[in-house]
Amino acid sequence: MPIRVVFFDALHTIITPRLPIYVQYSQVFAPYLGELSPDAIRVAFKTSLKQIQKEKPAYVIEGGANAWWMEVIKRTALGAGADEKDLLKALPEIVPKLMTRFSSKEGYKTFPEVLKTLERLREMGIKIGVVSNADSRIRSVLDDLNVAPLLDTILLSEEEGIEKPNKEIWVRALSRVGCSSAEAMHVGDDIFDDYQGSLNANLSPILIRRIGAEGEGESKEDGENLEGVTVIQTLLEIPDRITNTP
What we know:
- InterPro entries: HAD-like_hydrolase_domain, HAD-like_sf, HAD-SF_hydro_IA, HAD-SF_hydro_IA_REG-2-like_cap, HAD_sf.
- It holds the Pfam family Hydrolase.
- GO terms for molecular function: phosphatase activity.
- By secondary structure, this protein is of the alpha/beta class.
- The chain has ten helices and eight strands.
- It has two domains: 150 residues, 3-Layer(aba) Sandwich (Rossmann fold), CATH 3.40.50; 81 residues, DNA polymerase, domain 1, CATH 1.10.150.720.
- It has a six-stranded parallel sheet, sandwiched between helices. Strands 2-3 form a two-stranded antiparallel sheet.
- α1 packs across α2, α2 packs across α3 and α3 crosses α4.
- The radius of gyration is 18 Å and the shape is elongated.
């Protein structure tokens, strides 16, 4: 059946941090906490994020996304060697600055081929959506980067109360664009949440694996086995794949 809708993951698929996250955290931390090792921040952020994602999936925490990210920021700073007393004093200023930065193009940019790809899909009459394990700030990011006007729907885990790989999030997405799973494709960088999740929901899954520095933020598993996985290196491949779909 021909593809009528393409859903995209957000982070590391259509948008990416303008500078590495640990660099941006370091810039905000420095006036309050002194010079922490960027590499220590990088490691601590990755560890802290995974912990909180496991403990509180879909931003289900009293205080919502702001409280969720405050805990990530706190654990990241402590893990990177920040003085706890200084950190607790500075958190009320650090958290809003980071939350604001990552709510716009100050913190993010699109990959070079994104707008061209989305515009081409629109010309082909293909519906476009974003399905992302993210909080509501991604809406303002997509708007600021001129992506939102090209989309038919946006589903974010904070707003839906569920997250990928739960197939229910794609059921909702399909309902909102009036398409069946057989008419849908999902593109993302996480082999479990995006690829296996959308495959289990009976969509056509595509895994993105960019070459070079821009691809370093992708969710890659050590020693991942991509045998039998449909992989692309740029979103520009999507229109041709749709054209060639029976």
